[in-house]
Amino acid sequence: MYSCHHPDFVQNKQYFTVKGECPVNDSMDHPSLLIVDDDEVFCDVLARAMTKRGFDTTCTHNIKTAIEQAESLMPEYAIIDLKLSNESGLSLVEKIRELDPGTRIIVLTGYASIATAVEAIKLGATHYLAKPVDANDIMTAFERTTGNVDTPISPHPLSVERLEWEYIHRILMENDNNISVTAKALNMHRRTLQRKLSKKPVQL
Fold it and tell me: pTM of this prediction?
């Protein structure tokens, strides 16, 4: 757990711009927040930033430990990285929603695709945010309960490279993130597929 008054609290501008203040009354109830990310530095900085905004925060770095913590804490909020080493955070989204359908879940990813965003929402995530994000983006996402009909629609079609990226991720999702099966379905060498998946998505 992290305290607002922890002496090691630092502002790391690479990840966040910390603007929140500690609650005046430390005896007040703080909503529970589970953060799951295999990047321990990122997870630690995010935990401190969210604690500063009034959350009772717990960090874990893999799905097994995250499930144990979720079963123990029954968190009101959760932030889950999509890619946890060789595991998919989407399975954790589903598990947490089974434990408590009321948990508000945000999925974070540095490899955003339409397919994974759709699956995250279908499995019960409240929002899906592409990294880099800051704590204020996360707070805004937690507070939103409805969609925005005024969201602009891009007048430009997706590039060929972006269409390939989206197609690969859709097939990957259909095959439960199994690289070998996906490579076979795409008639692509496994190493070629891994190389494509390791690249950042082509900008829209």
Answer: 0.66
